Amino acid sequence: MARSWTSRVGTVLLSAGAIVGLTAVPSSAGGGAGSAGAGDPYFPLQGNGGYDVAHYDLTLATTPATGRLDAVAAITATATQQLKAFDLDLRRTLTVSAVTVDGRPAAFAQPASLGQELVVTPASPVRVGAQFTVVVRYGGVPVEVTDPDGSVEGWVRTADGAFVVNEPQGSPGWYPCNDTPTDKATYDFHVTVPTGVTAVANGELVRAPRTSGGRTTFDWHLGQPISTYLSFATTGQFQVTTGRTPGGIPYFTAVDPAQPSDLSQLPAMVDFFGTVFGRYPFSSTGALVDDAPEVGYALETATRPSFDSAPDELTLAHELAHQWFGDSVTVARWRDIWLNEGFAEWSSWFWSEHSGQTSAQQFFKKYYATPASKTDFWNPPPGDPGDAADLFDDSIYERGAMTLQALRVKIGDDAAFLGLLHDWQTAHRFGNARVEDFVAFTVARFPQVPGLQHFFQVWLYDPGKPANW
């Protein structure tokens, strides 16, 4: 995520997923049911337990003039315990009309006391280890979600459609899901809009748009697994450009005519980051630029980042770097957000250095000159934001990127440092990780570099301006 002016904070509700340090929350549906949350320290009720999602197939029909969404979600999952009942995350602004499990009607409820829980009771229990498909038919006018910092996310209506961004809790505002970073899945989207409106989602268009009766359907497929917060299905008036990077990666860009954008560096950025961090994780790339002034930030939606307005070069680089750090290697807990934002911010500095502009060390010196008295700049420490409302504070980005640049200098060998980032990304490709995992990975990699544990303590965890590292 990139901040419009350098700040944006997020909120969440996490899911179940058997990651060390996450504690299951008791089920809302009684014995034999998956838990109603994953127990993330910041958002204990986000996500659900008892199953692992493999694929979402979303059929969405929307009308920008009214904001109405009518949809069917088919979710393929595997039970990790016997399930007499289980929860999906879906906000109560959307009304469910029918649910089936493996083709049989299932009982369901949207209890007001549980906020965003859709409680499903199959006709017969799902046995542990069984693959099952739950189909949810629902509709309504999605309502955007307001985060602790006052920013908005989810299905955010625009003048000609909707700008859809989900970090950290927006996905249940438009489809039922297991809304936790630790449960990654592949996607199909079938989005029907009035003819003349374009629908853009993750992955690739699998066929030419189909038009009938004044409505057009766009079919998108993403074959690589992502967390729910990285999905999107934005609609509006867009100018579309397609092509391939010099390295052969297909790209698709969609730009609102009200936000003319220079995306000419995008192919070179993707190829450059691929040479540094490892093979591009996805089967296509690109960008979406909308006119969504209410939002105020960009987001690293998988395969093509979403921008609420025309991005500058550093913001474009930041979001594209997230495809490796955030989208492929994803946080295990929201407090681990430095692994996303610090890495993407440093990557934008490194792109600037690579392209003959300001070097990463020059960025470091500029920011390190900030006086210790500017406590809002230096706090919270990036390894422990301390509160959901501070997840996307400036210090997570600037001090977070400075941590990596200081580590680069401490290691003293560019090839070794870049090899560390490459191998970290490769080792955790399409997985989840914690800040502690990166620290251990680095310390094990460089036993000859003295004081690394102290270095990480000072830069990642100690409050105030880092010194004596």
Can you give a write-up of this model?
The model is unreliable at 4-30 (pLDDT under 50). A hairpin with a 2-residue loop joins β11 and β12 (161-165). The chain contains nine helices and 25 strands. The longest helix has 18 residues, at 394-411. It has helices spanning 266-277, 313-321, 338-354, 360-368, 375-378, 394-411, 414-427, 435-445, 452-461; strands at residues 2-3, 51-63, 68-79, 86-89, 94-101, 104-105, 107-109, 117-121, 131-140, 145-146, 152-158, 161-165, 185-194, 198-201, 204-205, 210-212, 215-226, 233-236, 239-244, 250-255, 285-289, 297-298, 306-307, 330-331, 432-433. It is of the alpha+beta class and 469 residues long. Helices cover 22% and strands 28% of the residues. The protein has two domains: 2-330, tricorn interacting facor f3 domain (Immunoglobulin-like, Sandwich); 334-461, Orthogonal Bundle (Neutral Protease, domain 2). α3 crosses α6 (394-411). Its EC number is 3.4.11.2. Belongs to the peptidase M1 family.
